[in-house]
Amino acid sequence: MVSAAQETSRTERRCRILVIEDDRDIAHLIEMHLKDINCDVVLAHDGLTGLNLSVGEQFDLVVLDLTLPRVEGLEICRRLRAMPTYTPIVMLTARSSEIDRVVGLELGSDDYLTKPFNIRELLARVKAVLRRRDALAAQGVPESDATIRFGDLSIEVSKRRVAVEGKAVDLTAKEFDLLVHFAGNPGRVYTRSQLLDLVWGYAHDGYEHTVNSHINRLRAKIEKDQSRPQYILTMWGVGYRFADALTAEVSSRGA
To answer: In CATH, which superfamily holds the domain spanning 4-138?
Structure first.
């Protein structure tokens, strides 16, 4: 078993995490264990304070309770995903309704846990989301300011901008991450479960339809004809792949 000290020694820098949780006992328990894995933690005990902190300061990750006083967790998630910078979110919920978890994932939550939860599982999921964020940032392009071009589609990775035939396309944070992952691995086939693991940061058993809905919305925004997609292709009975028949051009800004 890896000790907290060993985990700390492996980390190049301390992560800064915002915990928005109105139950102070749970919040302080999370804070204590996150500090053990080399994280700096900021606590907010109501939704309005958490919202102001999350949009006004920079964090590596937000642990977000859904049921909060003053501002609901789903609204905070929605507001964060409207921001130009992407901050991973691990959502906590005491609600048993499946729809709440689905809405959270659709809004762009990277993972969720239902209360009561095991603190070790929370730490594992936090670390998985942060690893996925770092891997996605480094994947598929030679430099952080690179632009990926496939035919009429262009993706400015560091600016998180997408255009088709020179016209800007408005994508959600998760739609953008999904597109960058596909474009960085043209021709490779992925199952829905693999995409959940690779793009959302953790395998969500039974939530493969989340991938379907994101791909449908992504196609609606970048494909000329959704019934005959040019970029994101369905591999029936398997999953999806990004077309490799097009000539990809990866160029650095200013090249």
So the answer is: Response regulator (3.40.50.2300)
Q: CA geometry: angle at 58 spanning 55 and 63, to 5°?
A: 75
Inter-residue contact 241 to 188 (CB < 8 Å): yes
| Dihedral sign computed on CA atoms, order 159, 34, 116, 23 | negative
Does 146-252 carry CATH code 1.10.238.10? Answer: no
Return residue ranges of the chain for CATH 3.40.50.2300.
4-138
For residue 209, give both structure tokens.
């339809």
Mind listing the pLDDT tens digit for each residue in 168-198?
998 877 888 899 889 888 888 999 888 887 7
For residue 217, give both structure tokens.
Answer: 């919305």
Q: What is the pLDDT of residues 9-58, one digit of tens each?
A: 444 568 999 999 999 999 999 999 999 999 999 999 999 999 999 999 99
